[in-house]
Amino acid sequence: MTLVLPLLIPLLAAGIMLAAWGRARAHPWLNLAASGAQVGAALLVLATVADGRILTLQLGSWPAPYGISLVADRLTGLMLSAFAIAAFLGSLHLVVDDEDVPARLGFYALYQTTVLGVSGAVLTGDLFNLFVWFEVVLISSFVILGLGRGRAAREGTIKYFVLNLASSAVFLASIGLLYGSLGTLNYAEISRRLAEAGGDPLHQAIGLLLLTVFGIKAAVFPLFSWLPASYPTLPASVVAVFSALLTKLGIYAMIRLTTLLFAAQPQALQTALVVFGSITMITGVLGALAQSDAKRLLSFHIVSQVGYIVVGVGLASPLALAGAMLHLLHNVLAKSGLLLLTRQFELRGGSSDLGRLGGLLVSAPALAAVFLVLALGLAGVPPLSGFVSKYVLVLSAVERDSWWVAAAMLGVSVLTLMSMLKIWNEAFAKAPPAPPPPAPARTWHPVRLAPATALAVLVVLMGVFGQPIVALTRAGAEQLLRPEVYRAAVLGENF
Amino acid sequence: MELALALFVGALVGGGFYMMLRRNVVKMLIGLVLLSNGANLLIFLAARPVRGRSAIVPQGQTAPEPPYADPLAQALILTAIVIGFGVLAFAIALVYRTEVETGSDDIDDYVEGERP
What we know:
The complex is a heterodimer of chains A (495) and B (116). Chain A is mainly α and 495 residues long. Chain A has 20 helices and two strands. Chain A has helices spanning 5-19, 27-49, 74-96, 107-123, 127-146, 150-182, 187-197, 201-218, 226-230, 236-261, 267-289, 294-315, 318-349, 360-363, 365-379, 385-399, 403-429, 450-464, 467-480, 483-491, and strands at residues 55-58, 69-72. Chain A has a two-stranded antiparallel sheet. The longest helix of chain B has 32 residues, at 71-102.
């Protein structure tokens, strides 16, 4: 039951919202309640698996590997919790500031189906089921993007749509080839058969195809252009939640690919991950530095931070995987917070274009304080959460004698700080441009800052009191690097 | 038969990718259709199609006699067809709305508001 709860809650919530289609004013509250319940369900899963147990559930009582299994280990628990917290704070933001989202067109139901899709994807133990959950997330995000205001939203949706659809077709093809070669779709069984099959080049090719697919979903170089093209057209709360959910799902799939499915022969995949992850880090932050719109700048940052996590997955030592998971958690908190703040830019200054903002340090000191905490957290300044995760990642690179990678990580950190300074200088420190921007339609209300403040507090807490989280991620990494434990849990000892 | 199917899948996927790279959005949609059909057919091909022997258990026995057509692959393809059909319906509506709002069906004209 523990495993099914994170799936039932968003599904029921979406169903109720569709049934109560006309009562659009109740939707944000229903969304908040469902997201809160989801946090509870996710933390329940995390608490159950924190001691190393692997929970399994065979759907329909078909024994593995013939049926679809739901499996939860520490990574699943961590990701479920991160997703649920991000979705909850996003729904909180939508309650205090609804940003004119089209509630009458089912926006909140789509919000819940997105949460459903990401929860299902991290809980499943079957490759085709993963494809289905990915499609659920994809279609929900397509429609949310497409419902946006103005032609920019439509144009952004087409770009998001084309690349992601190509990736779905390639995913399908890879699943077909893998099934034809191995005869199974269950992770544990694929892992076992690939270990027995040795280094067959066909399997390596399929692995690289799957890596490409997940790379597109995670916005890895060179296939990340969909992200800065589409995210800035979204309202701030939606882009905050998307940044926490969609790309991290691609990273989760990469982790499973290299540590579980191809655990026997992961070297080619890992090399590709380190190389492309490093390039992603660098191109992402360089792209960010070139932007003059706050949302677009932060969107490029998402790409850069994804690069960090991908390099951690590619280095694949226990420390590197722990660092990847820590950085993922840190990003869910810090990046979502920063993106929620761009809404305040729009409310206070009229737009998120940095050229038209100014003087917010004087006119909105609380906003400046929250932004400072989140921006320094993102850049990796101690004692905030970014420092903890980046320290672990750089240490893992040095431990593996990957000096170039470590240097790239540190260099990109400096550039990240520079781009945060750019936002600070443009939006907060400089005087407001003349003529003054048009008065915003909604008046300022301090409670609108609450969700971002909550995230800033979490960033500080994760940095200062991060030891238990670091311990949990290290335990999670150790568990990931022993796929035989997973196989035994799913298939039973006698397989 | 399998060689012909494989070449056909290659043609579909190749044509699909080529069409998706066109400037006209409708051609891009056609490319999408070709690509998803190619991927579906690839699943069919990879699961070793068997001519004329469906996976039905004969009277009085407990399992179909091998070789038989793989029903799981057919289930996968059906699911993928349905997902693809839903996405395509959305895509057509999206392309129509975009063309109405921007007045152009050329992807190079879609710049998310960043006009120089």
